[in-house]
């Protein structure tokens, strides 16, 4: 049951998750390009777009380059830093968790509904035959 639930969650939730990944990559590439343009000349970790992408992913896991960015461009460092952390870490990660949770509970309800219908069908047929048997046996006795 658990493996079936996991597989159905993944297969039925693949479209929203792929859409999420596309949005995440587009935003990450835009932020990496902005970081390279604004901070790339002075901050080694943001010296190219490719390096900026990996640095931004490291920033989402706890690498803080705020002091280096603030030394290069104090006006843009704070909004950029807050934007990256708030948008990616808080908002987009919670959206991903919500997508997975929503798909899981949808599949769980489908599984429970299917089990309930199967159980009701079995009980109804068993109950029907048992009732008919009781009527027939009482009439013959």
Tag the structure with descriptive keywords.
141 residues; mainly alpha; 87% helix; 0% strand
Question: What features would you describe in this structure?
Answer:
The chain is mostly helical. It has five helices and no strands. It has one domain.
Tell me, rounded to a whole number, the average pLDDT: 80
Helical residue percent band: over 70%
Using DSSP, what is the number of strands?
A: 0
End-to-end separation: 46 Å
**What would the principal axes of the Cα set say about the shape?**
rod-shaped
Strand residue content:
under 5%
Q: Major β-sheet, in short?
A: none
Question: How many separate helices?
Answer: 5
Indicate the low-confidence ranges by residue numbers: none
Give the C-alpha Rg: 28 Å
The structure class reads mainly alpha
How many domains make up the coordinates?
A: 1
How do the SSEs run, as a string of H and E? HHHHH
SSE layout and pairing:
Elements: H1 2-12, H2 14-39, H3 49-60, H4 66-72, H5 74-140
Helix pairs in contact: 1-5, 2-3, 2-5, 4-5
What would you say about this model in short?
Helix content is 87%, strand content 0%. The protein is mainly α.
